[in-house]
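check these tokens.
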Amino acid sequence: MPLTALVFAHLVGCDAFQKAFSSLDGITEATVVQGAVLGVDLPDDPQVSALLEGTQFAPGTAVTAFVADAGSVTDLANAPVSNAVVTVDGNISESLRAQGGGLYVTDPSASDLVYEDGGNWVLDVDIVGNVGTAELLLP
């Protein structure tokens, strides 16, 4: 008997969650963004600097963002968003280039973004006029 009661209580709980989730339809935002900011600076040590001469090492800042629609866990193949306009506003404002599959990047060798410890940047994601904004606090 206790097992039957436990199963029944579990089913009643699921029904309550389904009712709660259905009342949130149209309220919650299903777009998710994950990203990284990587700043590379010239080394202070002259010996290390000498070792890097003639290599492809260069100072710069790279920004990468992945944009997806998490609205349906049953359709993950179509989750990446490829029609977004992604912009980062640091010391300058720069658009990230779409790479396909929901990935957007800057080219650190062609970017004038400068990584600053403790910087406060803004990331804008515009999907057909629906704009979301996130504040990026650089460590």
